[in-house]
Amino acid sequence: xxxxxxxxxxxVMGMTNKKSLKCEQHMGHRAMYxxxxxxxxxxxxxxxxxxxxxxxxxxxxxRFSPECPNSSLLNLHLHALQPEDSALYLCxxxxxxxxxxxxxxxxxxxxxxx
Amino acid sequence: QKEVxxxxxxxxxxxxxxASLNCTYSDRGSQSxxxxxxxxxxxxxxxxxxxxNGDKEDGRFTAQLNKASQYVSLLIRDSQPSDSATYLxxxxxxxxxxxxxxxxGTRLTINP
Lengths: 114, 112
Description:
The complex is a heterodimer.
Chain A: E1 4-7, E2 10-13, E3 18-25, E4 31-37, E5 44-50, E6 53-57, E7 64-70, E8 73-79, E9 87-94, E10 104-105, E11 109-113
Parallel strand pairs in A: 2-11
Antiparallel strand pairs in A: 1-3, 3-8, 4-5, 4-9, 5-6, 7-8, 9-10, 9-11
Chain B: E1 4-6, E2 11-14, E3 19-25, E4 32-38, E5 45-50, E6 54-58, E7 61-66, E8 71-76, E9 85-92, E10 100-102, E11 106-111
Parallel strand pairs in B: 2-11
Antiparallel strand pairs in B: 1-3, 3-8, 4-5, 4-9, 6-7, 7-8, 9-10, 9-11
């Protein structure tokens, strides 16, 4: 069990659907992250939130829309996704923005786009 | 040149032996280095972090960092079949905090 909780664990959606991925942590961490991981590849950073503000967007397509409602929650809103967006989506958190603070990952949401 | 490079393996080690995993990075200003273990179908799990030159030991795991050579390694002593996984080396870029860059991962198999 991890201290970063992601829901749902699996999601299948069509290209015209709108869905959201959710991430929650109760460790008092002030930095949260979204990563995308394709099979047999390393995680790739998508977004970084620091103190509930978006600090990094790695040129992610606008069909992915992040949201940080409060310091414990991170959402990723999905709309009009493409089949190539099928992947494992990982949320992570760290104590704060400083580079020495390690990131801890949730179990991920496995997303399939039909 | 990739920012973080690892041998993709697979690396096969007999049970009880020492497994040695290597990683090099290109940005000399990098300051924080992490090793994650990822079992098939699971998420990455932090197993070691290291920030200064030298060795850092935690149980059967030892991380080694040499900033002059831009090299970081992970040694696993008394390897167990449960250590079979992909090991990801991750480096924090110095520009902008918390931009973690991963190597491609080394797949390790421990043979009973």
